Amino acid sequence: MKIVPSVLSENYDDFVLRLRQAEPLTDYVQIDIMDGFFVGTKSFPAEMISGVETELSFEVHLMVEDPGQIVRKIRNRGLRKVIYHFESRVDHDGILEELRGWGLDAGLAVRPETTLQECRGVAGRVGTLLFLTVDPGKYGSPFRPEVLAKVAEARRIFPRKTIAVDGGVSLDNLQLFYGIGVDYVCVGSRIFLGGRPEDNFRKFLNRMKEIEDLRA
Fold first, then answer.
1. What is the domain count for the chain?
2. Which domain does 99 fall in, by range?
């Protein structure tokens, strides 16, 4: 199971700082984009990602009402995957066709309260399912353990899909995600807020190795 740093910033300077902090740690990050409507928090303008030079590959997690409009503003050679929300106002056929045309992987994000039955049809058409285990939009929201059953069910239904979780991931609950077959977890505040990011990230890697060794 991979640890993916999640970069959530309301202003551009903080975004660049966290991106630079992540560069020595990993080759892949998640960048959160928020419009202030779908969630209460608003990030820096998405188009500013286009001008950032980085060797990192990344996915964008669009917590926005109109993901199609936002994704058209992002042009960066590091962009690999676009994850948009099932609950947003979107023409699923249209955005999936658009992403395929750009050669980008598509992912579907699901809020804690959305059932798998509601989103199953669209979920079958994307490569990645991202399950939020917190209420989205800011660092440090409390973990919602009831989502674990939904994640485990998704793994049973979609054994070949990439399944990820985002929010509330800690050293203490990391083994829960590993145990239900999650492919990667997105970690934000516990890497970038408090202490040195490199030390925090290393703790997650060490804990992950302990878990894998125990299961071997």
1. 1
2. 2-215
pTM greater than 0.70: yes
Query: Which stretches does DSSP call E strand in 35-124?
Result: 57-63, 79-85, 105-110
**Angle at alpha carbon of residue 144, lines to 85 and 192, rounded to 5°:** 75
Whether the CB-CB separation of 85 and 109 falls below 8 Å is answered with yes
d(CA 50, CA 153): 37
Query: pLDDT by residue (tens digit) across 126-149?
Result: 999 999 999 876 666 788 999 999
- In angstroms, the CA 5 to CA 186 distance is 6
Residue 68: name the closest of 48, 97, 109 by CA: 97
Three-state secondary structure call for residue 40: coil
| Helix, coil or strand: residue 59 | strand
CATH number for the domain including 99? Answer: 3.20.20.70
Residue 50: other Cβ atoms inside 10 A: 13
